[in-house]
Model the fold of this input.
Amino acid sequence: MKARLEDAQFFFNEDRKKSLEQHRDKLKTVVFQEGLGSIYEKTERLEKLATVIADILEVDSKDKKHAIRAAQLSKADLVTGMVTEFTELQGIMGREYAKLDGEDSAVFMAIDEHYMPRFAGDSQPKTTAGRIVSLADKIDNIVATFSRGLIPTGSQDPFALRRAKWSISINKIVDEAMTLLKITDEVGREKLQKDVADFMRLRIKNVLSDSVKYDVIDAVIEDVDDIYSVTLKAAALSDFVKTADSTKTIQSFVRVSNLAAKADSTDIKADLLNVDAEVTLYKAFEAIKVVAEELIGKNDYTGALEALQKLSMPINSFFDSVMVMDDDLKIRSNRLALLKSIDTLLSQVAAFGKIVL
Done:
């Protein structure tokens, strides 16, 4: 033990002959992945990704500045003697060396935090800068790995999906990561976006399956661009399906969806609505759409479901009183357009046809 501690003291003293930023230059000699440049180049990408993420989230200028600085220094400790000898200290030594260098506390904390969560159940970053750089690092790793045709397996929770709290477009960040990795082929970019989405979808399924029924997960998992939104939809829908009138409501929504598939557009012509039940449904839809979309925009899916449920009665009255597939093609198309418009609104919350009743 004494010998190991003496070794650690030696490496620490040697490392402290340079600032953490001065160590960073040596990262140019360390390969990130075959064909994808050095770790130094990776830190340059992280700076730019951190900038993009900060701008999307509209964080304040200090948090953005701290995130960019932390991204710069995030990997510098990998080439220090201490981390070379004690690899499990990566991030930790970066934090301590940056602290000794007089970096802002948000910066040195983010250097350590950007590795979080290191494993399922691990803590997630507490600082805004740490969360930004952590997301940037993981997206860069995924896109870089996928670009080489290597798709990771397993069911870990690398993005702390259980505790995700930010609404942010993964597609936008992946797109920027591909640009920074100089992936320019449009077909290749589209495939990589799909591969990342499939990867996210599988991870979210695995994470949610502990507490959410499989059919509810299937109903909300189609669009995984905003992971936080997916988790909120799953929670809200799980509660909704347990309520007394949910079965009747969902059945009405599924009837809408089935016929909406036959529609060519959502262009509703109010002057072609000539049956009381379809006029009533149209007016209810127009009013509820405004309320529901505002709630959806706030990620309030519980409220959105409560609003959408008010469509159930006019939907059922519509089907009881109206022949959707009218002989008059204009009338038929208009009724299908109404149903498709309603289905488009409903699908912002869930694919209700996936729910097992």
About this structure: The chain has 17 helices and no strands.
